[in-house]
Design brief:
This protein has helices at 17-24, 28-36; strands at residues 7-15, 40-45, 51-56, 61-66, 72-75, 81-89, 92-99, 102-111, 114-121, 124-132. By secondary structure, the protein is mainly beta. It has one domain: Calycin beta-barrel core domain (Lipocalin, Beta Barrel). A 10-stranded antiparallel beta sheet has the order 4-3-2-1-10-9-8-7-6-5. It is globular and about 40 Å long. It starts with 6 loop residues before the first strand and ends with a strand. InterPro entries: Calycin, Fatty_acid-bd, ILBP, Lipocln_cytosolic_FA-bd_dom. Cytosolic CRABPs may regulate the access of retinoic acid to the nuclear retinoic acid receptors.
Length: 134
């Protein structure tokens, strides 16, 4: 259920994110900022079933709205223009982004009350952990 993801999540750790950004083609300067940024993730669902993922930080705020299983055009925080689809698989929110013949996936799941985000590009996996704000 998407509802279990709803709330405001504060990042508490980020592992291997620089390698992940490198793997998807993010430039050095943007990676420097990306590595220092600890965004909050706000997840909401409206009455029509549109899911909103909003990433807020002092550097940049990005927001995507979508319906599960429906492809949409996304402009990512690092300005990639992707075709994206988000599905719910075994309790995980799986976001697949395709651009320029490449594909990456971002899997979010709730484990022990934490939101664990796995960013996967080929062999490279970054893990970002969030805790729910009271």
């Amino acid at each position: 259920m998407v509802e279990s993801f709803v709330g405001t999540w504060k990042m508490v750790s980020s592992e291997n994110f620089d390698d992940y950004m490198k793997a998807i083609g993010v430039g050095f300067t943007t990676r420097q900022v990306g590595n220092r940024t600890k965004p909050n993730l706000l997840v909401s669902v409206d009455s029509e079933g549109n899911v909103c993922l909003k990433s807020q930080s002092t550097f940049k705020t990005t927001e995507v709205k979508f319906k599960l299983n429906e492809p949409f055009d996304e402009t990512t925080a690092d300005d990639r223009k992707t075709k994206t689809v988000v599905t719910l698989e075994n309790g995980k929110l799986v976001q697949k982004q395709s651009w320029d013949g490449k594909e990456t996936s971002i899997e979010r799941e709730i484990t022990d009350g934490k939101l664990i985000t796995r960013c996967v590009m080929g062999e490279v996996v970054a893990v970002r952990t969030y805790v729910k704000e009271a």
